[in-house]
Design a protein that fits this description.
The chain is an alpha/beta fold. The chain has ten helices and eight strands. Helix 1 packs parallel to helix 9. About 40% of the residues are buried.
Length: about 270
């Protein structure tokens, strides 16, 4: 999958940042630790990072910006998201400018609507996103947590810019997107990014004997299997890692693939 901006392959595995620098409020308590963790992830080979203006009231973007300093910017893909309260035309532009300032970068690779807001016409928001692309402040645009009708509406309201990405909840334990959303995105060339790929930890809370046996056969951890099950489909995953050990484990999902038979078997364990 290309990222519809520079033709480079879209990274299949990235770093989530929820909780770094706070969740809904700014919290400096883990700031230095978070920058160190993100920097370690980039050094390890991660090329995708996902953040949002909501996280830590903007502090999380600042921490990502610190981790980006001194790195080859074009080699990395940065996602940020505009919050649902800022979807009026002028508010979108202002929010993007704030994210760019906090990230310390001249452009955002992918700028997404974080959540829909029925009180604001989607046409107005999509036009603002296109303006950001026209001004070269954003390279590609997308949405997050949209229903299929809203996704179709978003796409219909774009004039010059393709809808590049839909970020949604998807994991072995959360499969509703398979019914209509994934086929629609595939048909229309919309790249899917899975957040909560471990179902907020619940997926790996109880390891069955069958899962443990499969992991042992591949010489991989259950977490690596769960991530590979996603990325082998051409879907990106953005797990949050709380430690360097977790980052090393997550990146171990790349460079190999479950067989079709084992992927079906793994899927059936959670269906």
């Amino acid at each position: 999958m290309n990222d519809n901006t520079s033709g480079k392959p879209f990274p299949l595995l990235g770093m989530g940042t929820w909780g770094m620098g706070g969740k809904y409020t700014r919290d400096e308590g883990n700031a230095d630790e978070s920058v160190e963790l993100l920097s370690y992830g980039f050094d390890l080979g991660f090329r995708l990072v996902d953040v949002a203006e909501l996280y830590g009231e903007g502090l999380t973007e600042e921490l990502v910006g610190r981790a980006l300093r001194g790195r080859k910017r074009d080699a990395l893909t940065v996602i940020s998201k505009v919050w649902k309260d800022h979807l009026r035309f002028d508010d979108v532009l202002t929010a993007a400018e704030g994210s760019l300032r906090r990230l310390g970068t001249p452009y955002i690779d992918l700028y997404l609507i974080h959540w829909p807001n029925e009180a604001i016409p989607l046409r107005e928001t999509m036009r603002a996103l296109e303006v950001l692309v026209e001004r070269k402040l954003v390279r590609a645009i997308g949405v997050s947590n949209f229903s299929l009708p809203l996704l179709e509406e978003a796409q219909a309201n774009l004039v010059n810019t393709p809808l590049a990405v839909h970020e949604l909840e998807y994991s072995l334990a959360s499969r509703s997107a398979e019914h209509e959303m994934l086929p629609f995105c595939q048909k229309h060339g919309i790249h899917v990014i899975a957040h909560r790929p471990f179902a907020k930890g619940a997926l790996l809370g109880t390891i069955s004997e069958a899962l443990a046996t499969l992991a042992q056969r591949y010489k991989k951890t259950p977490a690596e299997l769960a991530l590979n099950w996603i990325v082998r489909q051409g879907i990106s995953a953005i797990p949050k890692a709380g430690s360097k050990e977790h980052l090393r484990e997550n990146i171990g999902a790349l460079g190999w693939n479950l067989t079709d038979e084992d992927a079906r078997s793994l899927g059936s364990m959670f269906s």
